[in-house]
Amino acid sequence: MADRLAGVPLAPYTTLRTGGPARAFTQAQTQDELVAAVAEADREREPVLVLGGGSNLVVSDDGFDGLVVRVATRGVDVAVEDGRALVIVQAGEDWDALVARCVAEGWSGVECLSGVPGLVGSTPIQNVGAYGQDVSQTVAAVRVYDRVTGEVGDLTAAECGFAYRDSAFKHDPGRHVVLAVTYALERSPLSGPVAYRELAARLGVEIGARVPLADAREAVLELRRGKGMVLDPDDPDTRSAGSFFTNPVLGPEEAAALALRAPGHPRWDLPDGTVKVPAAWLIENAGFPKGYEKGRARISTKHTLALTNPSGEAGAAELLALAREVRDGVHEKFGVWLVNEPVLVGASL
Ligand SMILES: Cc1cc2nc3c(=O)[nH]c(=O)nc-3n(C[C@H](O)[C@H](O)[C@H](O)COP(=O)(O)OP(=O)(O)OC[C@H]3O[C@@H](n4cnc5c(N)ncnc54)[C@H](O)[C@@H]3O)c2cc1C
Question: In the 8-state DSSP scheme, what is residue 159?
Answer without folding.
Answer: G
